[in-house]
Amino acid sequence: MLPAGEISEAPVTPCSENDDQKKNLKEKSDINIAALVENEQVCEGTDNGDLSSCVSAFIEKEVGNDLKSLKKLDKLIEQMTESKMQLEEQVLTVSSEIPKRIHSALKNAEESKQFLNQFLEQETHLFSSINSHLLTAQPWMEDLGAMINQIEEIERHLAYLKWISQIEELSDNIQQYLMTNNVPEAASTLVSMAELDIKLQESSCTHLLGFMRATVKFWHKILKDKLTSDFEEILAQLHWPFIAPPQSQTVGISRPASAPEMYSNLETLFCQLLKLQTSDELFTEPKQLPEKYSLPASPSVILPIQIMLSPLQKRFRYHFRGSRQTNVISKPEWYLAQVLLWIGNHTQFLDEKIQPILDKVGSSVNARLEFSRGLMMLVLEKLAADIPCLLYDDSLFCHLVDEVLLFERELHSAHGYPSTFANCMHILSEETCFQRWLTVERKFALQKMDSMLSSEAAWISQYKDITDVDEMKVPDCAETFMTLLLVITGKYKNLPTASRKLQFLELQKDLVDDFRIRLTQVMKEETRASLGFRYCAILNAVNYISTVLADWADNVFFLQLQQGALEVFAENNTLSKLQLGQLASMESSVFDDMINLLERLKHDMLTRQVDHVFREVKDAAKLYKKERWLSLPSQSEQAVMSLSSSACPLLLTLRDRLLQLEQQLCFSLFKVFWQMLVEKLDIYIYQEIILANHFNEGGAAQLHFDMTRNLFPLFSHYCKRPENYFKHVKEACILLNLNVGSALLLRDVLQSTSGQPPATAALNEVGIYKLAQQDVEILLNLRTNWPNTGK
């Protein structure tokens, strides 16, 4: 390496060097720099870091112990020299460029400083000019602000006077119209005045608002009194209200000549009163029951209908309030029936005479519903007053609820009253009343359940003598119970909110669970007689309740209730996300829990019956198991094949139990019963009789005859191919009765192709689909009629 002092004497690369030379030089420089950097890293890795050790490490790395590598020294010296020259050139270049950059930066900074000073001078000048201008303009601004305030105040006074002038003008117009008896124009002008009143409600001019309201009220009272008097006079001429039924009404018959004129006046006065609706709403607040009843918001009954309702309201209050003999708290049906009668008596007149007037003026009001809505408020007020008085008298409260539900049903079905309007169900949904209703329903339902289960006919079907009707063989107690649940559903079906309906649904589910527990208790008493009539009746009851609940789960009402439950549970976070998802996707229903419990009980009871019959069959099959299958004569040695005498007890027991349960169980239950029994019987005969014995040709033929001609036909009444339910027995009989040649061939195939497809094909060819290959080989070995092959 060269001494550091020689750096200044290194030649400088001429500036006129061409581009190719620069490129080559740069590449070499990069290579050399990399080598130097690597060398520097090696040097840094030494212990003392001195130059000699660094050089030694570099040479050791480049040359090593290989003497042939010494040839590289010239090349390395050349590379080091070039690298040194490159580094010196870079140092000189950088040292020459830096002063120029510093000078340029200083020059730019000086120029920026000059510009900044100029801007500061301009800002100072502008600031002083603006302050001077503001001081000069200040008096003008004060004078101008005062003038603007005066102008605004004068404009407000002028607007105020214009409003007063407009009100007085409208008032004068109404007065002139009334003086000339032009009531329609007076009513129209009052409508304009009322609309102005509504526009002014946001104003803070309290005196103006008071003047406007007082003026509207003054003329409204005058017009309303006049029109009401004339309207009531016309109604009186029409014999309103109609107390008698429509068939006996004689409206217009006694005065046929004046009837058209009366109806024309009726229409005129009705339209004029309708115009006063806007102003009437400013002064008359609709009667509202307390918020606890959660009645839906509704507008006031239109003014002409209010006047038509007035005589009926007086009659209602006269008869059903105070100390009148007709006001009996234990007879809610009196006032409920009276309201229904009034609605029915006036429906025809409202539809034929009043509705066309409303349609003519473009009103969307339904006259009959508006009339019904006005009468309904009387009923709601009466109920709200009476219910607290009989809340803790169970019989009276229950009677009231029943009468209200009948009233609601008639009102909605016969008179088309919408469920979205305020109705009696809102009163019954009030918290205190509703909880009492739930308590009473539960109490009476439990009492009914006690009586139905203790009845002598509790387990007898009402339709036992009618085959077509008695398919389910439902005992009287189960049918009465489901009727009770259906009645409860009808009671709460029209409740206004989903949360209230869900509370009734929980009551129904509790009753179902209570009834299931009672059935379980009775069933346990009958466990020793699991084939008895009462045990079967309980099983039919469980099956019937489960089936009906499954049908209800697909009912539109309960599907809507399920959607309501989804919303309520989501708000309250009472269910997991999985359960909410199942409800939302309709994978589960509101009755799933109850159905699962009932199905479990049904399965347990059926299993107990199957086990009982199966034990009897096994006892009867003891002799059949001991049959000497090895020594029975062959079919050719018998004139006619006959049933084994030892099989008779088994088949008789089976036949008797099947007939008994077919008569006592409903079709669906009996089908499950015999299929469960056949499954156990098939395995029993296969394992305990067939696999436990060896068979000669006669024994195999006898077994086949007993099974196919005697056992299987017992079930032919219940299915077309009973042998398909005895797969093990049927296929075992096939194998035991194969002719010797086929049996030998099958055995050879099984032994040569164990577990391969050819074996399966061979088994299928002879009719074997259920049994495994190992089972087939075992059955073939049970045959004793193999030929002597000398092996």
From TrEMBL:
Coiled coil: 70-97
InterPro entries with a match to the protein in the record: EXOC6PINT-1/Sec15/Tip20_C_dom2, RINT1_Tip20
Sequence segments annotated as region (Disordered): 1-22
UniProtKB keywords: Coiled coil
Cross-referenced PANTHER family: RAD50-INTERACTING PROTEIN 1, RAD50-INTERACTING PROTEIN 1 RINT-1
Name the UniProt record assigns to this protein: RAD50 interactor 1
Organism of this sequence: Rangifer tarandus platyrhynchus (Svalbard reindeer)
